[in-house]
Design brief:
Layout (H helix, E strand, L loop, with lengths): L1 H4 L11 H10 L1 H13 L4 H25 L14 H26 L2 H10 L5 H35 L1 H20 L5 H25 L3 H22 L1
Helix pairs in contact: 2-7, 3-4, 3-8, 5-9, 5-10, 7-8, 7-9, 7-10, 8-9, 9-10
Length: 238
């Protein structure tokens, strides 16, 4: 366990102010972006602009903190401790759970017609466009989320509260903006069930980062899970 908790590459471990400030600047941003873009100003350039800026902001903060505040060198987070096969196995396990839950309860919790209407509103109602979007989310977006929520949020949280608490906290922060977005499309029981799944996934991927000190095991797991999620979406919509 001591190997999992300690990491000499973390700078200024005794200083709690900088990690706290980083988390305060980052964690609310995606939820505010969703609120502006989907709830408060859904059909306006202003709302879409704030939504887009929130996406850029959560990438700027980790890079600025790493390169300019902590003055650390660039890194590809190489999986020197392994973990890729563990990540793949966990991804398959989570995917099997998601598919099983959908097979048992999906018809009673998710209305396909509502899904089709929602996808039409955002331009994903054509199969080629949907598949192109799915490819982006599976490959690029999942990578960016691992960089933001595991490489950065987990590390900064760990400096404040230790490894175990950081896993739960980062998973909760990761789930928050997903809940805000999902409530626009689903009722509360479905939103909370999906949110639970996202929290579990976030906790698993945070554990992967703590254990292996690399984003890549979590990324492999995350991408596999997204394949299952978008596969279910395809079945519902098309």
């Amino acid at each position: 366990m001591s190997e999992m908790i300690s990491d000499p590459t973390f700078p200024n471990r005794e200083c709690r102010r900088l990690p706290l400030l980083a988390l305060l600047l980052l964690i609310p941003a995606p939820s505010l972006g969703v609120a502006f873009g989907m709830y408060w100003f859904p059909d306006s350039a202003f709302g879409k602009g704030i939504f887009f800026l929130s996406k850029i902001w959560i990438l700027i903060i980790p890079l600025a903190w790493h390169l300019m505040v902590y003055r650390q060198p660039r890194s590809w987070s190489a999986p020197r401790r392994g973990g890729l096969w563990t990540g793949a196995g966990l991804g398959l396990l989570i995917s099997a759970f998601i598919v099983t839950v959908f097979a048992c309860f999906g018809a009673s919790m998710i209305d396909p017609e509502t899904m089709r209407t929602s996808m039409k509103e955002i331009g994903l109602d054509a199969a080629p466009v949907y598949l192109a979007g799915a490819l982006y989310w599976i490959t690029v977006n999942s990578f960016l989320e691992e960089v933001v929520w595991r490489w950065f949020v987990v590390r900064e949280s760990e400096k404040l509260m230790g490894a175990k608490a950081a896993i739960g906290f980062s998973a909760l922060a990761f789930t928050l903006h997903h809940l805000v977005a999902m409530k626009l499309y689903f009722n509360w029981p479905t939103t909370l069930l999906c949110g639970l799944g996202i929290f579990i996934g976030g906790a698993v991927w945070s554990w992967c980062y703590i254990r292996y000190r690399s984003i890549w095991p979590g990324y492999v797991s995350h991408a596999i899970v997204d394949v299952a999620v978008f596969g279910i979406g395809y079945v519902l919509i098309f």
